[in-house]
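User: Um, any thoughts?
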Amino acid sequence: KNGKVISLKAVMKKALGANYIEVESLEINYDDPADTFKKEAREVAEILKFPKSFEYVLPFLIRLIKFIKHEYEQRNDSIYNAIEHTIQNLITSIRFYKTYGKIHNLSMLDFFVSCVSSLFHDTGYFYDHFFDIKGHYLSSMHHVGHEMFSIQYARRVLYHYKEIIIPWFPGMNWDAFINSIGNVISATQLEKPAFNENKDIHLLRIIKAADLLEMCSENYVDWLIPLFIDNRIGAPEKKWPETIMALLKDTYWFMNDSN
């Protein structure tokens, strides 16, 4: 606009009259999420006594975080399902490993699957995945089945690192690994169960709990505002709710899952 680059988020906030609050919580460095991840991941590795090969796994995951962050900055328009949400999911997931992971004797491979699944779980919201038959863009909240796009994208990216990853996990079956990634990502579907509820049970529980964390926090309403903005993009006639309860009711699926 007038020779200046204006972010799509800023335009939407102004156009929709949103009183959007960017919440800084959970002690996460959103500017450099890899820094927070590195510290937390090393704690997990020490508690669960990961093998020495973790020193190869960790740098890879850090590079993957930076790659995904860059992809979100270039290809995502959703205010709610943005990089901040993905990083929250990731950091919260690995924090579960400090206690839950120890109780259930989860492995470094489990940890790796959790981290990768968290990073890719909402990449299906990237705007270049969704256009209707007339070429019109469909808003993020109307991306029904975005998890399938997330899984496909994860498979494409990970394939390039197959020969690097396999040696870190002796006896790894690549197809089983990729299937687990898809299964864990599928657990974040709002209205459907995971592909296989009897497989990767602990990992399904972890990512689902992490994905709903904001919905169980004292900042719940702050997170609902950008979610409502996303919803309104696809339904411009939608009016802003007059009460907090009306806002809560409009996100009934989260309320049910949170309960």
